[in-house]
Amino acid sequence: MPKSVEVGVNYWPSRYLPPQAGAEFARQLEATGVVDWFQTWDQLVSFLPQALWRADVTPMARLSADCDSYYNAGMVAVLAANATTRLNITTTLDAVRNGPAELLQQMLTLASTTPANVALQFAAGELKQCKPFGWKRSQGLARMEDIFVIVRKLLAADGLIDHDGKHWTYEGAWIGGHFPKVPKLWALGGGPQLIDIATSHADGFISMVPSAFASPDQWGAQVGEIRAQLERKGRDPQAFTCGFWPFVLLYRNDDQRERLLNNPITKWMTAAFGRLHHGAWRAEGIDLIFPEDWHYALRMLPHQMSRDEVDDVVGRVTPEMVEKSWLMGTPEEVAAQLRPWVDAGADYIAPSDLAPSIMEPEEQPEVLAAMIELCAQLRASSGAVIGS
After folding, report:
1. What is the pTM of this model?
2. CATH number of the domain at 6-383, please?
3. Among 101, 118, 243, 274, who pairs with 111 as Cys (CB 3.0-4.6 Å)?
């Protein structure tokens, strides 16, 4: 029997729209009956260089002068939660730029805004929104562990707590003992250290495919190791969420396919995210564009790159790299491609589609319709029922 999976749809919290647009988007998702989760993300700047945000690359540049104007993701998530009742809510958070007690306040506020489920996806940070703003990305994993441990202490305590951590020292700390509803904490990313932190302190692990796990077998092996770690640590694997963001290109016809596959944005994202550990391309017979040890979170500063530098990266991306970096096709075809990954061990997936950044403004309703159809296909094939 196919594995049941819950599906999330991403919302880009752009400041070129009013914040209430996130709430309206959430209402639309809930009304479909085939989407389980509203997902948004915490970013200070985009993954795309401003050098690519121009009208000859994306029609959306005619409507917004930059791709970096984001609202606070947590506040948008609260608006979405307040506008819905059955739609689960999740957003990413950065372990570098926020303190544990402050994050816990934010998480408790969001969780108590909706009767549905809430999960926070903690990442270890990215150079592009750490270094320019005075933060050290290298501290990300240590800060993540501190956050998880301190949050657990605060939630479990009936009085003051102390904590001598790697980056935070708490002495006689307390934020009250009333927690109407506690959200789930998911670790977002990959690598042995993050996974050890997740299986020790978190409620789930979220990653990306095919960029972090190039095949269902690779993903399944990782899920197996996570479950083994949980058992060794005396934790219930069935209570732990494993999921991923699949990178997809959805289209309906050959014209849309050609525009998506040949667009410089697709090629840039292929170079940066096709394989998160860039050197992994070598084992697949692909020439490297960046140094072998390059990883977007550790090395990428897109807004410090000139247009010539960006164009050089884009020009070196081959059709084979694009084909290997994205699950692509009609919603039905992509759902079929995703099924082996889901069956290998996934409780949650949030497809990440580039089409909204590339297609014409008048095509955006069709773009969203394709994503909703993908969700419907995935949930129908798993026999899932919304709200279950």
Report:
1. 0.95
2. 3.20.20.30
3. 118
